[in-house]
Every structure is written in C-alpha cells, then in structure tokens.
Design goal:
Number of strands: 2
Strand order of the largest sheet: 1-2
Order of helices and strands: HHEHHHHHHHHHEHHHHHHHH
Low-confidence stretches: 1-6, 10-33, 467-481, 483-496
Helix content: 55-70%
Largest sheet: 2 strands, antiparallel
Number of helices: 19
Shape: globular
Structural class: mainly alpha
C-alpha cells in the first residue's frame, strides 16, 4: 500500500517533534510528500477573497440577528440598533482573525469562524429589558467578566477532550446540524413570524429554487467554481428575487459610508452580580459548543483537534468575548454553519476564513457595504442553509459510523443524547416552567445533548469498565466501547 502523504505542520520543526532515537539532521527534499497541510496553505488572491466572502454570506444573518433582537428589547432606537449590528460585525471579524491567525497560545489556527452567540440572547434580554443604555452597559460589563473567566478556565476545560470519543463527537456534530436546520426553515419562510408574507408560497418557492440552484451548481461545476457554489447560488437567487419582489433595497439607501464603532458608545460598563452569573453560565455553554465544533472541524480538515488546539481555540473565544464589549459587541463563539461550509466545499485553508474575518471588519466599518450583503433575502439564504446545515448533520453521521455502535451501550448513548438534544427543537416550550438561568442550557439542544452524551459515555465506557475493554489492539489502537481511537493526537482522522 502506498504511504499516505505527510502534511508539514508548523510544529513539525520543533525539537520535540523528533524521536529520541532520531539520527543527526539531514537535508530533506521538499515535494508533495512534505507539503504544507491544506489548513496552512495560502490561496490565490481571487480564490481567497471569494471563498472568504462565501463564509461571510453564510454567517451574516446569524451575526446581525442577536443585536436585532436585543436592541429593540432594551428600548434602543432603530439607529442605535443598526449601530449594534455594525459593532457585532466588526467584533466578529476581530474574533475570527484571532482564532484563525492566532497569537502565541491563543487561537485554534483552524478555519474556525467566530461571531455573536445566540446562547446569550435570552439572558441579555432578561438583564437589560427596557433599560436602554443602562441595560447595554450592564450586559457589556457582565460579558467582560465572563470572557476573562473563560480565558482562565481554558487550560483546564480543554483537558475534557478525552471525554469526546467518536460516540460523543458524532452525536454532538449531528445535533449541531439538526439544531441549525430550523433556523434555515425560518429563513425560508421569511424570517419574521409577524410579517404578512411569513411562510408564503413565494418565500418557500424562492428557498426551494435557491437550494436547487446550489445542488445543480455543485453537480455541474468543477474545481474552484464548484467550491463557491453556495456563493454563486446566493447571487443567482438574489437576482431572481428582484423581479419576484422580495429584495429590499431600503437598507442600502439609509446606510452611511463610514461608521466606526466608538468604544463604550453606550457608556462605561457596569457590573451587577446577577448579570455576571448569567453570562458566566453562557460562557460555559459557549465553551462546550466550541469544543464540540473544534473536534468536528478537526475531523473534517484531517487535522484532529488535540488539547493544545482546543485550549488555543477556547482562549480566542474568551478573549474575543472579553474585548468585544470595548467596541459595543456581544459574546463571541463558534459558528457551526461555517463548519458545514468547510465540509461541503472542501476548502480547508484557515486563511480563507481569515479573509472572511477581514471582510467582516470592513462591513462593520462601512455600513453601506454591510447593507449590500444584507440584500440577500432570507428565503434565498434559507434555501442555501438547508444544504449547509444538512452537511453538518451528515458529517456527524459519518463520525458515528466509526463509533462502534454495536459494542457495549454505545447505541443507547446516541439514542438518549439525540432524544434529549432534540427536545428544544421538537418542543420549544418543553422547559417553560424551569428557572430562567437553567433555560440558558436547557434551551440549547447542542449543550444538553453534549452533556448527556458525555455523562453516559463516562457511565458506560469509563466508570467500572473492564480493563480488557481498553487494551491496545494489534494495530496500536485502543479497543473498547468508544470506537477506534488514534494512537496519538497527531494520527490522521478518518476521511470524510
């Protein structure tokens, strides 16, 4: 059998990477067998820009939606809410650059997109409802403390990676995709449940047409054009939507040319204990989801996320969150929809996502540019989103295929975790009688499913497990109820 090509990582050059018995260094010829890993490859400028723009298009609605909800709930004017949206784009760009390019031990250095977390919307509304600028100041103060706490916890939280075998990661990745699908369904209907045309035949047909365009482009195109099929589908879908009458050009005319997010625009941050506790809980939820996303992304790009990668990623999440309030932004965390985009396009370069981060910064500084991206109607975005988010769920199913479900109680672990994780999706009011602080976790199917999968895996495959279930097999892998486990963090992941 031919040897698998070896991708050169930046860490390969360190002294620790050489075996103890290695001979003296010799000149090594460079070539295909020693080329850079695709994650670290830089692409031609045009490909870098268009692929980065595709990531922005996939996440744009998710970034601006939280401030669109929080602003009016706190009693802010339309102009102030628009300012929050620009600040969210700007800080998402900064956090994404921190995550992809990294500084020392900060950043996962994977094609990992960061943006405003939906997990914080409910508690932020509860903290600042009808309090105007005071409410925003309290929320931003709580986020600063929560971000600093997450930064300090990252070196310890990352050690939980050994409790994320394929039976857990596959379940969580599947839940990520399934949990995001209702978002795309809502976009396909029009996004605003109170609008007269919500769920109209026009909106749903437009979503179906866009999805069909994306599928046809993926089938017919080759090479680079196939990789940007989502972006092309969004452009074509938007052009079709113009004569249909669902494209709103009002935002372009109202947007200003330049709009820097003035630091502490709403006043100095304020610190209230109850608000800090709520946002710290949100921070832990975000760290759990980000860990699962990094493990998923590591498998997709064939660079398994080890403890050091996860620590760097969590530090970037937390530091981005702590710095975000300086520019009036909210808590930052991973965007799972972009994991699906990486899986679908096969473009694994982290510099593509870094280019997307740069575009987000420009959009935050130039409102009129942001408004052009906002021209994409939500039904068009929803049609493309169904393909994107479905790709995430499919990746999770692929991971579960390696989890040895026929062994032990692994099938039961998956069944229980998926069942509980689907509760917030299938029955959104299921936990309505529970305290508000618990809803931060319970209303996230990803978080509840992840916790259940981890606990059941501990109970069935770790606590009291027989020693012979974890003895190495002849191939050097660990046998047991968790499915095949690479012998070392550097071992290649299964192909997806």
């Amino acid at each position: 059998m031919a040897a698998k090509p070896r991708f050169r990582n930046d860490t390969d050059a360190t002294p620790d990477a050489a075996p103890d018995s290695a001979p003296a260094p010799v000149a090594v010829a460079t070539g295909p067998a020693d080329r850079k890993h695709p994650v670290d490859e830089t692409l031609p400028p045009l490909k870098l820009l268009t692929s980065g723009l595709q990531h922005v298009a996939a996440m744009y609605a998710g970034v601006v939606a939280p401030p669109m909800i929080v602003g009016p709930a706190m009693g802010l004017t339309a102009k102030e809410t628009a300012f929050l949206m620009g600040a969210s784009l700007f800080t998402a760009g900064l956090a994404t650059l921190l995550q992809t390019l990294g500084i020392r031990r900060i950043g996962a250095r994977l094609p990992f997109v960061n943006g405003v977390s939906f997990a914080g919307v409910t508690p932020m509304v509860a903290i600042g409802k009808d309090r105007g600028h005071d409410g925003i100041a309290v929320v931003l103060g709580a986020i600063i403390v929560a971000g600093l706490l997450g930064f300090l916890l990252a070196p310890y939280f990352c050690k939980l990676v050994r409790f994320f075998p394929p039976v857990v990661t596959g379940t969580v990745i599947t839940l990520i995709g399934v949990s995001l699908l209702p978002v795309s369904f809502n976009w396909s209907q029009g996004g605003d449940a109170g609008a007269p045309d919500h769920g109209s035949a026009t909106n749903i047909t437009m979503a179906a047409v866009t999805m069909l365009i994306v599928l046809v482009l993926r089938k017919l195109l080759r090479g680079f054009l196939q990789q940007i099929a989502i972006l092309l589908g969004l452009v074509i879908g938007t052009l079709i939507a113009i004569p249909v009458g669902i494209t709103d050009f009002g935002a372009v005319g109202d947007a200003g040319l330049i709009g820097f997010p003035t630091p502490f625009h709403f006043g100095a941050p304020r610190f209230e204990i109850a608000a800090i506790v709520s946002m710290c809980i949100v921070m832990l939820v975000c760290m759990t989801e980000s860990t699962a996303d990094m493990l998923a992304l590591g498998r997709i790009v064939d660079r398994p996320a080890d403890e050091r990668t996860i620590e760097g990623g969590l530090r970037a999440d937390a530091l981005g969150s702590a710095l975000s309030p300086l520019f009036n932004g909210f808590m930052c965390s991973a965007f799972a929809q972009n994991v699906g985009l990486v899986a679908m396009t096969g473009v694994r370069s982290r510099f593509v996502v870094a280019a997307g981060g740069g575009i987000l910064i420009v959009l935050g500084l130039v409102p009129v540019a942001a408004s052009v991206i906002a021209l994409v109607p939500l039904p068009v975005l929803g049609g493309a989103g169904i393909v994107l988010f479905g790709s995430v769920a499919a990746s999770g199913i692929q991971t579960l295929a390696t989890a040895a479900l026929e062994q032990g109680e692994n099938a039961l672990i998956v069944a229980a975790a998926l069942g509980i994780g689907l509760i917030p999706i299938a029955a959104p009011d299921f936990y309505h009688a529970f305290p508000g602080d618990l809803l931060v976790v319970l209303d996230s199917g990803i978080s509840t499913g992840c916790v259940v999968a981890i606990l059941l895996n501990l109970a069935f495959n770790h606590l009291g497990a027989r020693a012979d279930r974890r003895t190495p097999d002849p191939d050097g892998q660990e046998a047991g109820g968790n499915g095949p486990v690479p012998a070392s963090p550097s071992a290649p992941a299964s192909a997806h």
